[in-house]
Amino acid sequence: MKLALGGVALLACIGLFFGIGLALAAHKFAVETDPLIEEVLESLAGAQCGGCGYPGCEGYAIAVVNDPDVSPNLCYPGKESVAERIAQLTGKKMAEMEDMIALVRCSRLEGRVSHKHEYIGFASCTAANLAFGGPSSCNYACIGLGECAQACPFDAITMKDSFPLVNPDKCVSCGTCVKSCPKQVIVLQSLKARVYVPCATKDLGKNVKKVCEVGCISCQICVKKCPAGAVGSENGLIQIDQQKCLAYGPDCHEVCVEKCPRDIFRKYDGRNVLARNTENRLKLAS
């Protein structure tokens, strides 16, 4: 009995010794927290989406307080109200925020793109892409296994007939889906934009015609005819300078849309275009 009590006492003394040691170490090596960082952190949306480019909300809070070059308007889920609060706390000037939304630059369903093989493996777009570029006959088409929908922290993307549909009421333009897509067919589009091209192919026109009924054939007519010089081609991919298009005036986009022989250069009216695309895709799938 005395031996048992002695053992308990010894363990208690050891525990007390280590407890005091840990307390002293914690006090000595304690890192002081900047109250401003804490205040900024509490003001953020807390989505932990990484859309700001930093590892979580705390990473952005530290950066925006300590780095004078970090903008106060990078918390996309918080939008303008949060940006104004961060600008006020940090004494920084808030740049103009542009409303953006995720846009899928692919018309695989509409173009009736077939499969070149059946993919059997992990239900991951990244994994499928490693297997000969994915199952689609178009090397630049959305693979459709929903990696973007799984990555979206706001449940703004749903899959219908193996194709991602963006909910404009939930999308905050954090860009998480853009980073997750191995085909890079998801982009952030300005809601002020007048035109868009729902195709990201870089293939030659003759190859596109073989696999897709509507895909861009890189004929460059839109590039040549755009009166604002807002349309260009980078490595075979059509790109639109929306700022140039908007600055030219409301008549600029009409020419490009009308001249496109594949009807893949289209008018864009913000959130409404997503609803129409959803309806069209559902009709094609039925």
Question: What does this protein structure show overall?
Answer:
- The protein has 286 residues and is mainly α.
- The chain has helices spanning 2-28, 35-43, 56-66, 79-90, 125-130, 147-151, 176-180, 205-211, 221-225, 242-248, 252-259, 271-285; strands spanning 100-104, 157-159, 164-166, 186-190, 195-196, 231-234, 237-240, 266-267.
- Helices cover 41% and strands 10% of the residues.
- A two-stranded antiparallel sheet has the order 1-4.
- A hairpin with a 4-residue loop joins strand 2 and strand 3 (164-166).
- Helix 2 packs across helix 3 and helix 2 packs antiparallel against helix 4 (79-90).
- It is flat and about 85 Å long.
Name the descriptors.
single chain; about 290 residues; mainly alpha; 3-methyladenine DNA Glycosylase II, Chain A, domain 3; Alpha-Beta Plaits; 2 domains; two-stranded antiparallel sheet
> Spans of 5+ residues with little confidence (pLDDT < 50)?
none
What distance lies between the first and last C-alpha atoms, to the nearest angstrom?
81 Å
Structural class: mainly alpha
| CATH 2nd-level architecture of the largest domain | 2-Layer Sandwich
Query: Largest beta sheet: what is the strand line-up?
Result: 1-4
Tell me, what's the shape? Answer: flat
